[in-house]
Structure formats: C-alpha cells, structure tokens
Specification:
Radius of gyration: 24 Å
Helix content: 40-55%
Shape: globular
Number of helices: 12
Order of helices and strands: HHHHHHHHHHEHEEHEEE
Distance between the termini: 49 Å
C-alpha cells in the first residue's frame, strides 16, 4: 500500500490508470458485504481511496475518482440484481443495463462524498475524517432521495457480529458506517503520499481502532446483560425452507414450496410455539380472497398463536388491480388474517421496475 502512495506522489498513477485503481478498490470494498464479509479488506480499499483523492489537484477530479470507486463497488455488491431483474424482462441485455445503470446513478452519491472530502487545506488526517462524515451523509441521501435505495449500507458488513450491531441502537446504521469508514481509512496517515508521516501519525489509527474495540466491547456487555430470551415466555419458530429464488416463481413449484414450509412448521415442538415465522414472500399467492388457501396455511399457526408470513397483497378497483404490495400477514389457527403490514419502501429493480408501464 505504501508503494501505491509513493507512486501517487510521484505522478506515476494519473488519468485513466488512477480511475482504474479506484474501480479495483471499490470492487474490493464490496467483498466486505454479505455474503463474503471480508471486513479487513476495507482498510486496503479506504486507505487507497484517501490517497487517491488527496493526490488529485481538484475536488472535481476527486469526484471522478469517487464515482469510479462507487461504480465498481455497486456492480460487485449488487450482482444479485441482474437475476432479479430477469424475472421481469427475460432479457439478459436489459438486466445488465439495469445493473450498470443503477450502479452508475448510485455512484453519484459517492462522487459527492469524495468531492466534499477533497476540500482545500486539509491534512491527510482531516481528509480521513471528512471522508467518513461525507460517506455517511451520502448514504443518508442515497436512502432518501427520490424513492431511495437502502441496500448495501456499509454498516451491514458487521452482520456476523451481534456485538458490533448493538451500536445501531444508539447511532443507527449510518453511525456504524461512519466509524467503519473512519477506522478503515485511518491507516492512510501512516504513509501519506509525497511526505513523511508526522511524529503523532499513529494517534488517529490507534484511536479509530480503539473506537471499534470499544463499540464491540459495549455491544458484548449489552448482550451479556440482556435477559434470557427464554424468560420472556414467548416461543418463536423460524422456518427457512432454503428455496432458491429462481425456483420460487414457476407455477408448478409454488404449492410444493408451501407444503415444504408447512411440513417444517409442524415438526416436533410445534404445539409449544407461540408464533411461527415464515420468510418474506414465502407465500406467492394473494391471501385476502383465498379462503381455501388460508385454511390450508392455518395448519402452520400454533394453537393460541399466529403464523407470520410474507405474501402479496393487492388493492382492486372496478375489478382491476390498482396496486400490489409486499406484505406481512398474521394468520390465526382459524385461517383469518388478524393483521397486515405493507412494506412501504420498495427497492427499485429488486421489488419493482421503475417506469415499467
């Protein structure tokens, strides 16, 4: 990494090679996300990104660098979007264009972050802090501008660590992302491009790493002091039938998938459960007007309890469907729908295709 910093300082990496390096670093950062969770590689990606934006001559070039970083980052992190889009288009070129187009748009938010982080008169340490703040702000914008796209926020790299995730109860996912970027980018001050590190350069990396340790320790303590879930008196049965996405939608498979969920739900211990929980869109039918299907599903609702299942819901007017919802239904043992929650923030291209009509 220090070799990269030295080459940046000497001007050996500029123009298209610089943008290519940014793209490689962006793709590398995506490996920290599910399902790989290679979190240590974030230190390589963000240290390199700080050096790249610190070495350019203007905020606009920093924005171009950030856009290339983000473009590759979103392509690598959202590879799953292409097969999801194929469900609607049945066209590989259209699915590819959808992934590339969405990644290009989302990369603009990271370009704004690197533009802001390249403010004049900042040291490398200042650049690290500015990037961490600007990155978190860009994630907030990405989740709220227009319809928003809240997928692959950087805080989700800590999903395998329940202790780290406790911090979100205080600062949310954006706060967890902030300290993640801060710690990942802090090593940049140890070998700044074109200059000798200062005598106190170790302070920021040490403090950032110490912050991560403190967040983990606080989360671990919170979990250790939490009451035993068994003491609440509520028993949940979580059912995961491990259905591949491409196998979920063919007409001939849908009822067999329901039967698999029913069989798993009623394994020994079923009567002791209070709530049985199925996955999102486990039921690929409309339930509201389908009494026979609800009666069949009621077998998965424990006595005196409920089945919570993801399903579709639609609103109709004059015999015509006017809206379709990704919903959660609570079914009683009698097959009645006791309550419904509609997901209000659908994901573009994953749950709906913008401007499809």
């Amino acid at each position: 990494m220090c070799i990269l910093g030295a080459r940046l300082a000497s001007g050996d990496i500029s123009g298209w090679p610089r943008l290519a390096v940014a793209a490689v670093l962006g793709a590398l950062a995506a490996t920290a996300l599910p399902p790989i969770h290679a979190v240590p590689l974030l230190a390589v990606s963000f240290t390199g990104l700080v050096w790249l934006i610190h070495s350019v001559s203007s905020p606009w070039r920093a924005a171009a660098t950030g856009w290339c970083f983000g473009f590759a980052h979103f392509i690598a992190g959202m590879y799953w979007m292409a097969p999801a889009t194929l469900r609607f288009t049945d066209s590989v070129p259209k699915a590819a264009v959808g992934l590339l187009g969405l990644s290009a748009v989302l990369a603009v938010f990271l370009a704004l972050a690197t533009f802001a982080a390249r403010l004049p008169s900042l040291s490398v340490s200042g650049r690290v802090l500015a990037l961490a703040i600007a990155w978190s702000a860009s994630e907030w914008l990405r989740c709220n501008v227009l319809s928003g796209f809240p997928m692959n926020l950087l805080g989700t790299v800590w999903m395998p660590s329940p202790a780290m995730l406790q911090f979100t109860s205080l600062a949310g996912t954006y706060g967890l992302g902030f300290i993640t970027v801060l710690a990942a980018a802090a090593p940049a001050v140890l070998c700044p491009p074109g200059r000798t590190p200062g005598r106190h350069a170790w302070i920021l990396p040490a403090a950032s790493f110490g912050l991560l340790v403190a967040v983990w320790a606080g989360g671990a303590m919170r979990l250790a002091l939490a009451p035993d879930p068994a003491s609440t008196g509520t028993r949940l049965r979580l059912v995961q039938a491990n259905v591949q996405q491409k196998a979920e939608w063919p007409e001939q498979e849908r009822m067999a998938i329901l039967d698999r969920h029913l069989r798993l739900s009623r394994l020994p211990g079923f009567e002791a459960a209070d709530v049985v929980i199925w996955p999102e869109t486990a039921v690929t039918f409309y339930l509201a007007g389908n009494v026979p299907l609800r009666t069949r599903l009621s077998r998965a609702a424990p006595p005196q309890g409920h089945l919570l299942t993801g399903s579709w819901r639609r609103t109709r007017q004059a015999g015509r469907t006017t809206a379709v919802w990704n919903s959660l239904h609570a079914l009683t043992p009698e097959g009645d729908i006791a309550a419904t929650y509609d997901k209000h923030h659908l994901v573009p291209f994953a749950e709906y295709v913008p401007l499809r009509e």
